[in-house]
């Protein structure tokens, strides 16, 4: 029997010499020396979190972009 899976979002940013990955749907975060390592660690952190705190309902996420005015530094 195949295990049921669910897709989540990973937002990855570079901070100094590490990549930080966050899952906005669950609130988990992790890091790694590469993007792949950060996402792999985030997957593990999210799986462990969901084992302890199972989702009560299916939240639907929306991924969108927005713009802000550029501000020149003086």
TrEMBL record:
InterPro entries assigned: TA_system_antitoxin (IPR051404), TTHA1013/TTHA0281-like (IPR035069)
Alphabetical list of PANTHER family matching this protein: ANTITOXIN HICB (PTHR34504), UPF0150 PROTEIN SSL0259 (PTHR34504:SF2)
Signal peptide: none
Protein name per UniProt: Type II toxin-antitoxin system HicB family antitoxin
SUPFAM superfamilies linked to this entry: TTHA1013/TTHA0281-like
